[in-house]
Amino acid sequence: MPLCYNARLMSKHLIRLYHNLEFDEIKQHTLEYGTLSGICSKCKELSVKIDMTSCPKCGTQFKYIAIQNVREHLPKMIRIMGERQGVYFIDHQDFKRIEGEQKARSLLG
Fold this sequence. Notes:
Oligomer: single chain
Number of helices: 3
Structural class: alpha/beta
Strand content: 5-15%
């Protein structure tokens, strides 16, 4: 029996997924993107553009992008997903919370 194709049922949408990931690995390859530019989370290079695939200072490949205001940058996100296979968008609040927890543990022991 042939499969029926219904375009309405096959539409794509952005959906959040939760995975257990090694934070140190993510931090080494994340572009933190704000309003106009980003920061390399590995070397803290400023003014990194969202279209850059690697840091201009340290050369690290950006596998993850943490955007502060998703609603504002949604069209850019959709465009980047179409252009760059293998890049993942991660929640900026989760990223900063875990980063803060790690800093606190290292200071407090």
